[in-house]
Design goal:
This protein is of the alpha/beta class. It is built from seven helices and six strands; from the N terminus they run E-H-E-H-E-H-E-H-E-E-H-H-H. The protein has one domain: Vaccinia Virus protein VP39 (Rossmann fold, 3-Layer(aba) Sandwich), CATH 3.40.50.150. It is about 30% helix and about 15% strand. Helix 1 links the parallel strand 1 and strand 2. The two termini are about 20 Å apart.
Amino acid sequence: MQLIDLFSGFGAFSLAGKQVWGDELEILGFSEIEEYPIKVYQKNFPGVKSLGDIKELDGRTINFSGPSIITGGFPCPPFSNAGHRKGQADDRFIWPEMVRIISEAKPTWVVAENVLGIISMGIDDCLADLGCQGYETELFVLPACGLGAIHKRNRIFLIAHTNGNGEPALFRLFGETPKGFMDSVDKYRIENIKDKPRIPGMDDGFPNRLDQIKGLGNSIYVPILIMIFECIKQIENIKKKGAPINTL
């Protein structure tokens, strides 16, 4: 599996990918503009190419040679209460740049993340954009507390797969309804969270320092990404065997 990590932050998507695929995962590059997250990412994933600002990235230079994923927790302030919910009028609305990279690089999979506020402020446009590029999409609301965290942290996850051969959506690997997918959460539930931050009442999976608060606030709960990637891995393994995906 090959991966491009857009809006990478500390590298939650890359970390989850390594947990699932190990050495079989090739991270082709990451895109981030904030100095501190870049330093953290490069410390944790030395040698991975920095792609710089997504606005200056040419997706045609990304050469996938097999199953591939483009990931990204694209900026949420346009849809969040803290960001004043200006939606597409916000200059921080850069989903179109992510779509542009997807259309140019043509990955097998797309996994995007954002806050719940996007449901009423543009998620239909996101789905339409990916549909126009030949992707079948599914949306899931996945809370961190559903996999063992003590904070709720509801987030929208958009999972898309190229549908040129008519393959079914991701959730059908686990049943004919989205509930079948959500039933699989128990398989990946986290019994204990090892690293406790020093701010009382918070638990985000990372040791805490004051200079990390901004990055942690923008980060994604890694066990959720592991669960999603495990599902994608199963589908890709079935595809290799040539079996119909909807037979499970």
